[in-house]
Design brief:
The structure holds two protein chains of two kinds. By secondary structure, chain A is α/β, with parallel strands linked by helices. Chain A contains 15 helices and nine strands. In chain A, strands 6-5-7-8-9 form a five-stranded parallel beta sheet, with helices on both faces. In chain B, about 70% of the residues lie in helices and about 0% in strands. The longest helix of chain B is centred in the middle third of the chain and has 36 residues. Classes of the chains: A alpha/beta, B mainly alpha.
């Protein structure tokens, strides 16, 4: 091994020469090191942090109308979370109860929406639907099941087409959750020409963040500090985080109105049969953090999007609840979301479940349940 | 402009290339001046916000030019004027509010510029040329963009030496400078942020933790994480700017020399923020001790005079950081720690004799405990550095007094063990390892490339500037 330490000191008056071979070797060392590090860390991350986000029971894909095979079970896992079993009933809904018509006196809610509605990456008993079902069954002292028709973001724009299927289940209420990601993609699906800026560096970074496991692992750790997550969120130059600006940017106002129109088409079908529609806005982790004084930034309005959604939803006769204050009040952001993936974790679903129960109890159809409403929803479903 | 940042690095590398395009002194001075002024103005929203700072530099320069013509009292007048201007611009609490400027103005780096200007006012003026070259040299020295924000504090003769006979920049120097920049950036951008997060998590967990042993552990983390964070933050910044300055053929002085290996608190201040403590030792400790020794010439009290002067010097080191009662307490603890250390040494030497004391101080167990105690004491004093009275009260209330004391004792034990292990590993690697391999430029290039990869991944994810340098505020 040659002794490379025998180099002159940095203050020697003579200018020293690097051996000619080093002008090739040193750049090669740089390239080889980074390549090796990238490959080794990616392989190691994939072994230690396995991920399976696609549900193998799915029929179709996120870009088409997605359904799930009846009586099918699929295992999924967020890189940051545990393995989770996804069981679909005889109708292909993620529900523990059968989808056969509700028996007289039985109470039922139908859940619609995208992955958060479905309880993606969360064990069934931890999903808000399962928690709410368990709590309401106890409060109402009669079976109260939730038939979960939640799929993925790709189906949000055509959700109204599934309302007849949902009403066939004879529900007492329809529960829908949406998040900022859903709203962005709702706009793309409904007005595809409005969003196609072309291939940018932002796309490359976005691809790496969502597809390279080492980036997911790094995000998980670096975003543990909500302040770091908020900074990264706000420095995003695309419009995907601009909904916290004050006043709400026109693009987000339009997205709220798009959702309002979608809710209107759903409510037009449910109103004649007296089934209320309850819409819940589930914030992103950084959005929730911005509502906490510790992480708040001057000049921003974290409530702006919620207010726009409230106006749009209530104009169509739907009930609306912005869960941002609930997530902000919970404070422990690390346990409410998968920081890198962005979906609510079991802790986040507990908060959603609590608000779903509270909202349902306000409906006249559940007056009898309201009398017993001292129960706490925090318990897991049996 | 944030230092360190990718933006700052890009500017510095571009300017370094321009700087080294020609060996002409005027060219290099012009390039350095341009980048110095660009970085300086970047801290201001409007150019008028720079005026007080410019006024300070102009008045000091005029005084330095006049200095040789002034009578004997001139040697006092100029430093007093410079000090008064500094105190006024820094809005010290004892300055009547009616005298303060009401409009906002730039003070970034003023403390560090003050030390350079004060040094020129006291004795450095003799080496400053009294012509246009001297004026350019004065501006490039005081506003040097590499050390403007948080030092290190360079002496003018050292700067002038680099100006007059620039050290060479060859591939080896460039490699070392880039390595230092990368290591510095890594320390500030990632390591210090992670340690800071660890401390914040421990603080957040304290109120909800019921178990006493857990609370003691968390308390030890809260107190012990901050010195590590501060070291990574400040030494990372120093690595970064020392590396950049070297590309401009400027050899900035070092600010850190493995401070947590110190065997006592006096030694610690020889290794931590070296340029600040050296400055104060030069301009406060030595003159004050000399003056007291002349006033009280008895040899027997000399060591005790040194104790007193140590206290005054390091009280000033501490109090320099801020004007609040917390920093006053921090100063008292720094001065008290160093003075107690000196008193302890003096008493042992008087009691045991110099040879037996030296033998005691060489014992491995003594050194191990002393190293841990030095760290634990510094961590304790920093409580008044990073928190205010309200936060301190909340911390002690959350822990309870017995647990607070136990937490510090746990920190002392942990610091003793961890630092001893660190020293053992370090000396084993250095003595048993292949020095040739360790210093191989191929291995070092590979390590620097790996750190660069990690920094880039983190930068792409965080998409945010590096954390603020703590010492930028002072």
């Amino acid at each position: 091994m040659p002794d490379h330490s025998a180099e002159p000191g940095p203050t020697d008056a003579v200018t020293r020469r690097l051996p000619a071979r080093d002008y090739i070797l040193l750049p090669l060392v740089v390239v080889a090191t980074i390549t090796l590090l990238m490959v080794v860390s990616e392989v190691a991350a994939r072994i230690v942090w396995p991920e399976q986000t696609d549900v193998s029971c799915a029929i179709g894909g996120p870009a088409t109308s997605e359904r799930f095979r009846p009586n099918c079970t699929a295992e999924t896992k967020a890189a940051e979370g545990p393995w989770v079993s996804n069981q679909f009933n005889e109708c292909g809904y993620r529900s523990a109860e059968s989808c056969r018509p509700a028996a007289p006196g039985q109470l039922r809610a139908v859940v619609m929406g995208s992955s958060t509605s479905r309880g993606a990456l969360v064990a069934y008993e931890d999903t808000f639907a399962a928690r709410a079902s368990a709590a309401l069954t106890r409060l109402c002292r009669q079976p109260f099941d939730f038939q979960n028709l939640g799929t993925d973001w790709g189906d949000l724009a055509t959700m109204d087409r599934r309302v007849p299927e949902a009403l066939a289940l004879k529900p007492n209420a329809i529960v829908i959750t949406v998040g900022p990601f859903d709203l962005s993609h709702l706009a793309i699906a409904m007005e595809p020409q409005s969003e196609r800026p072309g291939f940018t560096l932002h796309d490359v970074v976005g691809f790496m963040k969502t597809n390279l496991r080492i980036f997911i692992v790094a995000q998980h750790y670096l975003y543990r500090d909500p302040a770091a997550h908020v900074s990264a969120f706000l420095s995003n130059k695309s419009d995907s985080s601009s909904y916290v600006q004050s006043p709400l940017p026109p693009v987000w106002q339009e997205r709220a109105e798009l959702l309002g129109r979608l809710i209107g088409r759903i409510a037009a079908q449910t109103r004649p049969v007296g089934v209320p529609v309850l819409l819940f806005y589930v914030p992103d982790r950084a959005h929730a953090a911005l509502s906490v004084p510790q992480y708040a930034r001057p000049g921003l309005d974290p409530a702006a999007l919620g207010e726009a959604l409230r106006t749009a939803a209530q104009a169509e006769g739907a009930e609306f609840a912005d869960l941002t204050p609930d997530f902000a009040a919970a404070g422990d952001f690390a346990s409410l979301y998968y920081p890198a993936d962005g979906h609510p974790s079991a802790g986040g679903h507990r908060i959603i479940g609590r608000r779903v129960v509270e909202a349902l109890l306000q409906d006249p159809a559940f007056a009898q349940c309201r009398a017993n409403s001292t129960m706490i929803v925090g318990q897991r479903a049996p | 402009m944030t230092v360190p940042s990718f933006q700052f690095l890009a500017l510095a590398l571009a300017a370094a290339i321009a700087f080294n395009l020609s060996a002409a002194k005027w060219w290099r001075a012009a390039v350095l001046m341009a980048v110095n002024l660009y970085v300086f103005q970047s801290f201001a929203g409007q150019w008028t916000q720079l005026l007080p700072f410019i006024g300070f530099l102009a008045i000091a320069y005029a005084g330095i030019l006049l200095r040789p013509t002034l009578p004997w009292w001139g040697s006092w007048l100029l430093p007093v004027v410079v000090l008064a201007l500094f105190v006024w611009l820094k809005r010290y609490l004892f300055v009547p509010p009616t005298l303060l400027l009401t409009a906002p103005y730039v003070t970034v780096g003023l403390s560090y510029v003050f030390f350079r200007v004060m040094h020129l006012a006291i004795d450095g003026w003799e080496t400053l040329p009294r012509n246009a070259t001297g004026f350019v040299s004065y501006l490039n020295y005081t506003l040097n963009f590499t050390s403007l924000v948080s030092g290190p504090i360079q002496r003018y003769e050292d700067y002038r030496r680099c100006e007059a006979a620039p050290p060479p920049v060859d591939p080896f120097v460039v490699g070392r400078a880039l390595e230092r920049i990368i290591v510095g950036f890594f320390k500030v951008y990632l390591l210090s942020a992670l340690v800071s997060e660890l401390q914040h998590e421990a603080i957040a967990a304290l109120p909800t933790t019921g178990e006493a042993t857990m609370r003691i552990g968390l308390g030890a983390v809260v107190v012990g994480a901050y010195p590590v964070y501060l070291y990574l933050n400040f030494s990372g910044y120093t690595d970064f700017v020392v590396g950049i300055a070297r590309l401009f053929r400027i050899e900035l002085p070092e600010n850190f020399d493995r401070p947590f290996s110190s065997l006592n608190f006096i030694d610690f201040w020889n290794r931590w923020h070296i340029t600040l403590s050296t400055w104060l030792k030069t301009y406060v400790y030595s003159p004050l001790l000399l003056s007291l020794m002349r006033r009280f010439p008895a040899r027997g009290i000399e060591p005790f005079l040194a104790v007193l002067v140590y206290f005054v010097t390091f009280f000033l080191v501490g109090f320099w950081h801020g004007q609040t009662s917390e920093f006053l307490c921090f100063g008292l603890l720094q001065g008290g720690g160093v003075a107690a250390n000196k008193l302890y040494q003096t008493c042992l030497i008087l009691g045991l004799g110099r040879a037996r004391y030296a033998a005691l101080a060489r014992r491995p167990l003594y050194q191990t405990v002393a190293r841990g105690l030095t760290f634990a004491w510094f961590a304790f004093t920093l409580l008044w550095f990073w928190s205010n009275w309200g936060q301190l009260h909340a911390l002690v209330a959350g822990l309870g007094w017995p647990a607070a004391v136990a937490a510090w004792l746990l920190l002392l034990a942990m610091a003793t063990i961890v630092l001893a292990a660190w020293e053992a590993i370090r000396s084993a690697v250095l003595s048993a390892g292949d020095r040739g391999l360790l210093s191989s430029r191929y291995l070092r290039t590979a390590c620097a490339s790996a750190l660069t990869f990690v920094i880039l991944v983190a930068a792409l994810i965080l998409n945010a500037p590096a954390p603020e340098i703590v010492y930028k505020s002072f």
